[in-house]
Amino acid sequence: MAYDENTAARVRKLLAGQRYVAEKKMMGGLCFMVNNTMCCTVSGRGGMLIRVGPEAHARMLQEPHASPMEMRGRIMSGFVRVAPEGYQTDAELKRWVKRGLDFVAAMPAKTAGRKATPRKDASAKSKVAAKAKAPPRGRAQKDPRR
């Protein structure tokens, strides 16, 4: 199921004044990233996913049209699913997107992309073992014929 293009356009309009906004197709919908951190998603299953953080999760579930976000049978604390009825007006949508922005603003900034961690060469042990068996460099071996 494709995400709601109309809702995505409305979210784009709300985030137009924000810096460092990117869109990524993920989690079955269109995810809006702010400062390389997920803020909200227009879901392909209908509705929106809003990142509110684990501390606000229970409180946000008390809001009308909000329910827990479930992924592969697990409840994802820190995210809520909001039914389309919960953001019909521009004011309601703005309130939900602002909650996602508030959570992102409270997080430390991330850098774009992941840095590769250096890996040890798998053959490093065998190279060390080979060096231990090899004669030291720079020394000439005695000719057994002499």
Q: What class do helices, strands and sheet pairing give?
A: alpha+beta
Rounded radius of gyration (Å): 27 Å
What percentage of residues falls in helices of 4 or more residues? 25-40%
Count of helical segments? 4
Mean pLDDT level = 84
Q: What can be said about the biggest beta sheet?
A: 6 strands, antiparallel
The largest sheet has its strands arranged as 1-2-3-4-6-5
Cα distance spanning the termini = 85 Å
Q: What features would you describe in this structure?
A:
With 146 residues, this protein is α+β, with helices and mostly antiparallel strands. It is 31% helix and 26% strand. The chain has 4 helices and 6 strands, in the order H-E-E-E-E-H-E-E-H-H. The chain has helices at 5-15, 54-60, 90-106, 124-133, and strands at residues 21-26, 29-34, 37-43, 48-51, 66-71, 74-82. A 6-stranded antiparallel beta sheet has the order 1-2-3-4-6-5. Strand 2 (29-34) and strand 3 (37-43) form a beta hairpin. The model has no long low-confidence stretch (mean pLDDT 84).
Describe, in short, the structure shown.
With 146 residues, this protein is of the alpha+beta class. It is built from four helices and six strands, in the order αββββαββαα.
How are the SSEs ordered, and which strands pair?
Blueprint (H helix, E strand, L loop, with lengths): L4 H11 L5 E6 L2 E6 L2 E7 L4 E4 L2 H7 L5 E6 L2 E9 L7 H17 L17 H10 L13
Antiparallel strand pairs: 1-2, 2-3, 3-4, 4-6, 5-6
Spell out the key features of this protein.
6-stranded antiparallel sheet, 26% strand, 146 residues, 4 helices, alpha+beta
